[in-house]
Design a protein that fits this description.
- The protein is 33% helix and 0% strand.
- By secondary structure, the chain is mostly helical.
- It has a domain of 41 residues.
């Protein structure tokens, strides 16, 4: 998949909407968005996954005084 396709595809897999769009909250960020979409993607050798909300909640309940909510 070309890099310019991935931002518009987020969250649309299997949906009835064939075209996706990507935007910035601030107009000053548009040049970075444009350059990012035309830049080659780097190869990732490894990736991490965050724990689920349920696991975070269980951990926060086990340590109520740690300031972890």
């Amino acid at each position: 998949m070309p890099p310019h396709e991935s931002p518009g595809r987020a969250g649309r897999y299997g949906s009835k909407f064939p075209v996706g769009e990507v935007a910035c909250l601030c107009a000053d960020d548009l040049p970075l968005l444009h350059s990012s979409l035309t830049a080659p993607s780097s190869v990732l050798e490894q990736a991490g996954l965050l724990p689920s909300f349920d696991l975070l909640y269980m951990c926060s309940r086990l340590h109520p005084n740690s300031g972890f909510y």
